[in-house]
Amino acid sequence: MDEVLDTGANHLLAALPDAELRRWLPLLERVDLPLGHVLYESGVTLHHVYFPTTAIVSLLYVLENGASAEIAVVGNEGIVGISLFMGGGSTPNRAVVQSAGTGFRLPAEALKAEFNRAGPVLHLLLRYTQALITQMAQTAVCNRHHSLDQQLCRWLLLSLDRLTGDEIVMTQELISNMLGVRREGVTEAALHLQAAGVIRYARGHITVLDRQKLELRSCECYAVVKKEYDRLLPDEFAK
Predict the structure, then answer these.
(1) Which residues form the Cyclic nucleotide-binding domain (predicted)?
(2) How far apart are CA 86 and CA 219, in angstroms?
(3) Mind listing the pLDDT tens digit for each residue in 8-38?
(4) Which of 76, 110, 135, 138 has the lowest CB atom count within 10 Å?
(5) How far apart are CA 227 and CA 45, in angstroms?
(6) Which residue, among 212, 172, 180, has the nearest Cα to 196 in the 3D structure?
C-alpha cells in the first residue's frame, strides 16, 4: 500500500481538509520511530515536524544534572514540533520516542507556509496546541499534588489512548525518567496495580487488564485532559 494512503492513522492529518492534505502529500515521508529515538534536543532548531501513527513520543524537560521529567505525550492524535508554527523555532524540552512505531514527518517550511495561509490548518493547529498546553499544565499539577500510584494510572491511560491495543512496552528506567521518580517507586506502584488486578507487569511489558479500574484509581487529571482534547478537536480525534 502506498504510504500516503494511511495518513488517516494520525487523527490530525485525518482532520485536514482535502485541499490542504493534497498540498502535503508529496512532502510527507513515512518514518520508523524506534524506542528511545530522539526527535529533537533542547534548544535545537527543528527542521521537521512529526505526526505519529503507531508510535508515542514523550516531551521531556532535562535538568543540568541529567534528571528528567515528562511534560506531555504525543501520539496518533497530534504533532511533535509545535514551536515551529508558534514562532519559536526551538524549544527547551527534548522529544523522545517512548513507544516504538511509525509516523510521518513534514519539512518545517511546508508547515510554516500552510500555517501562514491563515486558513483551516492554522485554526486546527492552534486548537491542538491549546489541548497540549492543558496536558502540560495538568501534568505539572499532578506531579506536585498526587500520589505516584495516581500519576502512573494517568500516564498509563494517556498511553493507552494513543495505542491500538492494551499492552505497553516500557522499561522501569524509562517510566521512572518520564515520571521523574526512582525506579523503585515505579516498581512499587506497578505491583500495587498488579495486586489489584488492574495490570499485568513483567519484563518491561505492561498489559492493562481492567481499564475501568484503572480510571477509578487515577486522579482527576486524566479526565480533565481527555475532556479538553474532546472539546477542542474535531470528530476525527474521538476514540
Answers:
(1) 12-133
(2) 31
(3) 899 999 999 899 899 999 999 999 999 889 9
(4) 110
(5) 32
(6) 212
Integer Cα distance of 191 and 14 in angstroms: 38
Amino acid identity of 165? G
Nearest Cα residue to 168 out of 198, 206, 202: 206
**How far separated are the first and last CA of the chain, in Å rounded?**
24
Q: Which three cell numbers stand for residue 105?
A: 514527518
Distances, alpha carbon 15 to alpha carbons 6, 93, 121, in Å: 13, 27, 9
Cell numbers of 236, please?
A: 476525527
SS (H, E, C) the chain: CCHHHHHHHCHHHHCCCHHHHHHHCCCCEEEEECCCCEEECCCCCCCEEEEECCCEEEEEEECCCCCEEEEEEECCCCCECCHHHHCCCCCCCEEEEEECEEEEEEEHHHHHHHHHCCCHHHHHHHHHHHHHHHHHHHHHHHHHHCCHHHHHHHHHHHHHCCCCCCEEECCHHHHHHHHCCCHHHHHHHHHHHHHCCCEEEECCEEEECCHHHHHHHCCCHHHHHHHHHHHHCCHHHCC
Cα 211 from chain centre: 19
The single-letter code of the amino acid at 94 is R
Q: Model-level pTM greater than 0.70?
A: yes
The x, y and z cell numbers of residue 33, run together, are 520511530
